[in-house]
């Protein structure tokens, strides 16, 4: 049974109540989520929403969690950090949820961290910024690889190609801003020099002025674009329009077939670090993620009639990390679940093998990334 609520302040609450009508509300496990279903980050939030709906249905159809049905209460924050705060307050105070997942992006995730710590409630972010989990916060965990890891993976590929100088173009907020900081800090340790450093807004409809400056930068051997959502699509189209032929890198923030469809052939040759979902059909039989990601891909695409992507995997991992922690804790008690999350070891998710600890609330290594290249609308492994 699907229930549609209206959340005030322009927020749409999508509540998925899948338990039998005979089950009392007190028996439900209430999973709260806030996602960028609309707005500039809808390329992320929409597949995450689809994933949570589909997987909650599956869990309930199989008997629920600890024999109890899950009720998903999901708000669209429209990619706006202020609406993220409003959504989280509503989930905590009105909906009385047991856990919160979301923040499709870094700005949304960062905006709610004080609320989550004050509420003493397990929080699983889907944002990429390293600042979400560094420094470690007691109640906050996250599922995707960090912007720092993306920069490191790109730098390793640059070195293999003999690139020593590159231009950087990044978003001026959230994930892009944090990615810029990480890139500038790490580049010297890899023997790389940033010869141009330009920024753009995720709402910009044209970035040709910044790209024109980059085209004139002396010595640039490559271009690294750091952003997520619709912004990198604008950048990629402008690169093609200006005839810039530098080898181009992006972050895992665009590891999505929807991004490729938005820009078409303009993306050909672009390289980026990506998780297993982007290359699910090309994983080797011995890869421990192969069965998981291929099964999820098949189910997602059959249900929604659209391509699965890495971003959908962020939501899958958040939900099942929580499910796994609840099972090990034998309870939905928030403190017990938090402790179980922190002790997660050997969890196979779409992002990789997760091993958390008191000093690591993400639990992924650099090996969870593969370097891929976009060609003819698909991702191919290049390492």
From TrEMBL:
Pfam families in the cross-refs: Peripla_BP_6
Signal peptide range in chain numbering: 1-25
InterPro entries: BCAA_transport (IPR051010), Leu-bd (IPR028081), Leu_Ile_Val-bd (IPR000709), Peripla_BP_I (IPR028082)
Keywords: Amino-acid transport, Signal, Transport
Superkingdom per UniProt: Bacteria
Entry keyword annotation includes Transmembrane: no
Ubl conjugation in keyword set: no
Entries under Gene3D superfamilies matching the protein: 3.40.50.2300
GO biological process: amino acid transport
Domain Leucine-binding protein: 28-364
Family assignment from sequence similarity: Belongs to the leucine-binding protein family.
Protein name according to UniProt: ABC transporter substrate-binding protein
């Amino acid at each position: 049974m699907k229930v549609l609520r209206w959340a005030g302040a322009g927020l749409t609450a999508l509540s998925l109540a899948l338990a039998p009508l005979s089950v009392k509300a007190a028996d439900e496990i209430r999973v709260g989520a806030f996602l960028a279903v609309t707005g500039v980050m809808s390329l992320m939030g929409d597949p995450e929403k689809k994933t949570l709906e589909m997987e909650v249905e599956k869990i309930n159809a199989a008997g629920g969690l600890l024999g109890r049905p899950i009720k998903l209460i999901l708000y669209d924050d429209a990619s706006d950090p202020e609406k993220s705060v409003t959504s989280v307050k509503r989930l905590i105070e009105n909906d009385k949820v047991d856990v919160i997942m979301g923040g499709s992006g870094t700005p949304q995730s960062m905006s709610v961290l004080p609320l989550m710590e004050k509420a003493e409630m397990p929080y699983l972010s889907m944002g990429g910024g390293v600042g979400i989990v560094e420094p470690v916060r007691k109640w906050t965990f996250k599922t995707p690889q960090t912007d720092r890891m993306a920069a490191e993976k790109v730098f390793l590929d640059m070195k293999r190609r003999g690139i020593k100088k590159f231009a950087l173009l990044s978003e001026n907020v959230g994930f892009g801003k944090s990615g810029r900081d990480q890139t500038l800090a790490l580049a010297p340790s890899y023997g790389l020099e940033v010869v141009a450093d330009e920024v753009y807004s995720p709402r910009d409809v044209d970035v040709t002025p910044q790209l024109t400056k980059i085209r004139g930068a002396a010595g640039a051997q490559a271009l690294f674009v750091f952003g997520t959502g619709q912004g990198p699509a604008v950048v990629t189209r402008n690169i093609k329009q200006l005839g810039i032929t530098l080898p181009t890198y992006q972050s895992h923030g665009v590891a999505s077939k929807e991004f490729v469809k938005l820009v078409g052939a303009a993306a050909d040759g672009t390289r980026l670090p990506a998780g297993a979902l982007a290359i699910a059909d090309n994983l080797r039989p011995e890869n421990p993620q192969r069965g998981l990601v291929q099964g999820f891909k098949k189910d997602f695409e059959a249900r929604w009639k659209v391509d699965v992507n890495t971003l959908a995997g962020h939501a899958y991992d958040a939900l099942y990390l929580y499910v796994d922690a609840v099972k090990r804790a034998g309870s939905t008690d928030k403190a017990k679940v938090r402790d179980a999350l922190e002790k997660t070891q050997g969890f196979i998710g779409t992002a990789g093998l997760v091993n958390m600890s008191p000093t690591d609330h993400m639990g992924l290594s650099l090996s969870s990334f593969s370097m891929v290249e976009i060609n003819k609308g698909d991702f191919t492994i290049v390492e």
